[in-house]
Amino acid sequence: MAGLRIAAAVTGFVLSFSPALAAEMQVSPAAISLDRPEASQQILVTEMDGERRRDITREAKYEFAAPNIANIAADGLLRPMAEGTTQLVVKFGDRSINVPVTVTGLQHPVPVSFSFEVLPLLTKGRCNSGGCHGKAEGQNGFKLSLFGFDAQADHDALLKEGKGRRVSLTDPKTSLLLLKGTATVPHGGGRKIDPGSAGEHRLRRWIEAGADFSVPNERQIVGIEVEPAQVVIAASGSQQLRVTAIDDAGGKRCATVEADYISNAPHIAETNSRGLLQASDVPGEAAILVRYLGHVAVCRVVMPRPGSTFTRPVENNFIDKHVWDKLTRLGIPPSELIDDATFLRRAFLDVIGTLPTAAEARAFLADGSPDKRAKLVDALLARPEYAEYWAMKWSDLLKADKLKITPQGTVGLTRWLRKQFAANRPYDEMVREILTIQGPTQSESPAAFFKTLDTPEVTSRAVSQLFLGVRIECAQCHHHPSERWSQDDYAGLAGFFSGITVKKLPDNTDAIVARAGTDHKHPRTSELVPARALGAKPADFANVADRRVALASWMTAADNQFFAKAIANRLWSHYFGRGLVEPIDD
């Protein structure tokens, strides 16, 4: 990390694609266990020829050695029918594989878990989304927590509100949860669960058993996996995904049907509600975000342009290698080299924020040196306009508002920033000083930054977004819908800034002072949450008086997974018009 000024993380995938001819066949999982009436298991059938992979789940033929134990749909989803064991025979062409299948728990089924079996149905049906009952005021008098982050509150809303009509323990079939969910009675949100489906059966069984909040020996879900995690696919091709939930005892069960799927590039690839990924004819990359009970996983999709080859350009630096590697995998030829006039204009605007003079333009265009472009960049970085331009950009990021920090505070912060860029100070050193600064807010320092942030929560949100590329504000009210951050993470990060105060000086100006801080309260339970950085263990403040020092050390450490990427992404976005990740601060 020391000396970091710009870093780029450009990743690629090595898998191949295209239809296989004579190839091996693989079936996953190798053995199947269905342990309750509503259990399901998605199988994946893959044709392999060397590095080539092709999904044939919907092309394979299926039959059971012993009928009436389980059934399988054409998409490869198994469901139980009766207790017992059998063999699933998977055939494709002249190849076949036997998969043992065991069905238990139908005669004496385990109780339905509200948190881990009922809530996923509400989330899958978008019942607890921000556009329905999950919004702040609820919908038609019925409010659920957003994406099921507060299971206890949701249970209370179903059983203790609505005059007992939402869940009827005395006559389960009249419960509005069932009647409206299946659209048996009019429902503004339409049908969310098909009548007679496993989902309806699960809800009815939960109500008939007493609609309890918890069940004996209930396991906690600690994570999910998506398979395959990386896909290289042909144009207009498809790939079935499988989602597996993992509990705190290491147990696994299929959650493909209950999981949510969101594509960041639907014009390249998107996924339906059952996990079937469908590619378009547009080459490129996409990421499929898989969400289940607050846990997330990602399937990365690459669709190369078929039949495209090009001569690999010369590598001028380590970034070029990653870029050419990626373009080669995608089959996308690089753009042609721009002419000198275009390069001159872009370099001036991007580096120092102004256009060249007529004399500067004529001199550059007349120069016949082969390295004149590199010399121009070096010259621009040494000009005072470079430091002024980037000081202006960072003063905006650090919220240098003269109405909040006074005109003198704005001048002091901007002058400090200008000196940092003029000296080409490494970003990690600069950010460490910003995070740990104390002193007058009108001095030539970054102290005024903390005056614009009046609470630990506001400070932690700004620091996380600016220096880590993580928007954590969603976790103030609920588990982040597309990330792993919880309200514990939100409170833990805020705990680093609880000791920061603004002290009034004798001349009526202000100073930032760091005192011994305290842990922050959980937004919902009000319990104290030990201060901890994102994804880290609780911080140790034994050798630091200012909690921010511990955060700065974690943030600028060589193995930090956020800081270097966030800075590099911000710089990449400036120079290329789009970040490696968009939005650039999330």
Keywords:
586 residues; alpha+beta; Immunoglobulin-like; four-stranded mixed β-sheet; 16 helices; 20% strand; disordered N terminus
Mean pLDDT: 89
Strand order of the largest sheet: 2-10-9-6
Q: What is the CA-based Rg, rounded?
A: 29 Å
Give start-end ranges of low-pLDDT stretches. Answer: 1-21
* Oligomeric state, counting identical vs distinct chains: single chain
Number of strands: 25
State the major sheet. Answer: 4 strands, mixed
Explain how this protein is built:
With 586 residues, the chain is an alpha+beta fold. Among the domains are: 24-103, Immunoglobulin-like, CATH 2.60.40.1080; 114-208, no CATH class; 221-303, Sandwich (Immunoglobulin-like); 340-382, no CATH class. Helix content is 30%, strand content 20%. It contains 16 helices and 25 strands. The chain has a 4-stranded mixed β-sheet with strand order 2-10-9-6, with no helix packed on it. Strands 12-20-19-16 form a 4-stranded mixed β-sheet. A 3-stranded antiparallel β-sheet has the order 1-4-5, with no helix packed on it. Strand 7 and strand 8 form a beta hairpin. Helix 1 (114-124) crosses helix 4 (198-208), helix 6 (340-352) packs parallel to helix 8 (372-382) and helix 13 (456-468) packs across helix 14 (487-494). The longest helix has 21 residues, at 402-422. It starts with 23 loop residues before the first strand and ends in a 10-residue tail after the last helix.
